[in-house]
Amino acid sequence: MIPPSIGNATKMMNFSLFGNRVSNNIPKEVGNLSQLAFLSLSNNQLTGSIPATLFNISSLLGVSLLFNSLSGPLFLDEGNIVSNMYFLSISDNQISSCIPSNICQLTELKVLSISYNHITGDIPRNVGCLSKLGKFYIGDNLIKGIIPTSFGNISTLHNLYCRNNRIVGGIPLELGKLSNLRQLTFDNNSNLIGQIPEAIFNISSLEVIAFSFNNFSGRIPTTTGRHLPNLKVLELGVNQLEGEIPLFITNASKLEKLELNYNFMIGTIPTNLGNLRELRALLLHTNQLTNEPKERELLFFNSLADCRMLRYLQVGNNPLNGVLPNSIGNLSSTIHNFYIGDAHINGLSPKV
After folding, report:
1. Which fold has domain 266-352?
2. Is the whole-model pTM more than 0.90?
């Protein structure tokens, strides 16, 4: 355990017990460490609440408490916070209650990581006050309410991770203003609805777009001018999206995972997917995708032979209505999982 006498070490600047078996509570006396800059107590067996006194240390810049069993509130939603911390990581605990509105007093905050807890309530509407925030991780909690439009004020934001919550409503247009965004993850909320704003697909810095397991509808923007040169993951499966697979996807040369399964997609599977040389997973099953008009063979397989990294290929549960080309044999050395059941395949199966 951490003894209360730790509060006597008033000149301590760095305190780390990372990766031990320290148990019991964090004593409130840590608030007496008036020169403390960094506190790391991650990967221990700590229990009890986070002392409110911790946020009254003006010199404190970084706090890491992840992988413990801490409970109680994130911090009290009252009074002033004098801390100038820029790093706060409390993921993988048992923290409950809401995100307090006075979190916006942490104006220097660059990283806020509180995923994998039991946090409830809404994302504070004034979250945009955290104008220096770069990483915002609140996934795997019980957070409800809407996505605040004030996120659009945080021009420094590059990671927005909110999966596995109970967030409702639509994706605000203001998110399209975040020109430095790299990761946008809202999958597994179930109640996000409406169309995905076109502006999202104009953020050239994006590497991850993850909106699977929601109720999004409408079409994916098909404008040929869309260009996502850094996109690695596009997860839009298990929604109510319709329309054709946008051609701009085949220009996303760094794409590793394309997930459009369990939607209402129509049209054909692009025959130039071979441009995606980094592609590892292609999940298009359970849609209404068809074969090229007047073609007998399923020509998209010819292009996929150039995807040497491809491991997961699922195109079943579509009315493809065609013949497997001989080129499918070129996939056999790389594919680990191939699903083409209930796809109206006819003719002889080629040798593989």
Report:
1. 3.80.10
2. yes
